[in-house]
TrEMBL record:
Stored PANTHER family: SURFEIT LOCUS PROTEIN, SURFEIT LOCUS PROTEIN 1
Major localisation: membrane
Segments passing through the bilayer: 12-32
Organism: Streptomyces flavofungini
Protein name: SURF1-like protein
């Protein structure tokens, strides 16, 4: 009665189902791992933002990468802004998705080393080739507070590091490039300022560490699909068996009159 399962059509259908089940299960675990990574990342950001600020030089140094454990940590530094060598980072958006610039200002520490400070966002009101008008940073010795960030790269950001830009404009924040341009020792990474001054650029929003996305829902969805494959296969088998039984009964009923003897 189930000999139809040995036909080419059903063998192929069964093999496809056997392949889909482990694939869907693996996709479910992939989404689960993404969910777990997102939760861990959010917890890491939360711990970093809640920690008491420390001097920037405890966590970074010239020519060194900011360690992953130090990213988003609140840091402080005492020194003075070098507005003369200020640059802007092109094609950056604010919380309303408006396109503009980030303002990157060298901050000279008391020991002569430089800390790059992203003072915030300004709109791109004029032509892209012109240096925009920027609110001046505070003069004299000040203390800056902000979130420590790693140097930006094309691989991590997806932003191409275009060269040949207008004067004092950059695409990515790189302490190495700025050290070369300034001819000074620049601490690795940069700081997103969180302590505003009068008439300062629009401060950058705190990184999102509350949303977890839909990865868990996708994981459950893939596992339901995996469970649905054998259930669907059983339904199709029963339907095929029923259809074949009905076809056989119909054929037998049609052949019955032909097989009975003719009456005189």
């Amino acid at each position: 009665m189930y000999r139809f399962l040995l036909t080419r059509q059903w063998v192929i259908l069964t093999l496809i189902g056997l392949v889909l089940i482990p694939v869907m299960i693996e996709l479910g675990f992939w989404q689960l791992h993404r969910h777990e990574n997102r939760v861990a990342h959010n917890e890491k950001i939360g711990r970093a933002l809640d920690a008491a600020p420390v001097p920037a030089e405890r966590l970074t140094a010239p020519g060194r990468d900011v360690p992953d454990s130090a990213v988003y940590r609140r840091v402080t530094a005492k020194g003075s802004y070098d507005a003369e060598h200020e640059v802007v980072v092109r094609r950056r958006t604010n919380s309303d998705d408006e396109v503009g610039f980030h303002v990157l200002t060298p901050f000279v520490l008391d020991n002569g080393k430089v800390l790059l400070v992203n003072r915030g966002w300004i709109p791109a009101d004029g032509p892209q080739t012109a240096f925009p008008k920027i609110p001046a940073p505070p003069r004299g010795e000040v203390t800056v507070t902000g979130r420590l960030m790693a140097d930006e790269t094309s691989a991590a950001s997806g932003i191409k590091d275009v060269r040949g830009l207008p004067d004092r404009q950059i695409m990515l924040i790189s302490s190495g490039q700025q050290a070369h341009a300034l001819g000074k020792k620049v601490l690795g990474g940069y700081v997103e300022q969180t302590s505003p001054s009068a008439d300062s650029p629009q401060l950058l929003a705190e990184p999102d560490h509350s949303g977890i996305g839909a990865h868990m829902a996708y994981a459950v969805q893939w596992w339901l699909f995996a469970a649905g494959v054998p259930a669907g296969w059983v339904v199709l088998v029963r339907r095929e068996r029923k259809d074949q039984a009905e076809a056989a009964a119909k054929q037998a009923a049609e052949e019955a009159p032909e097989a009975s003897p003719a009456t005189a």
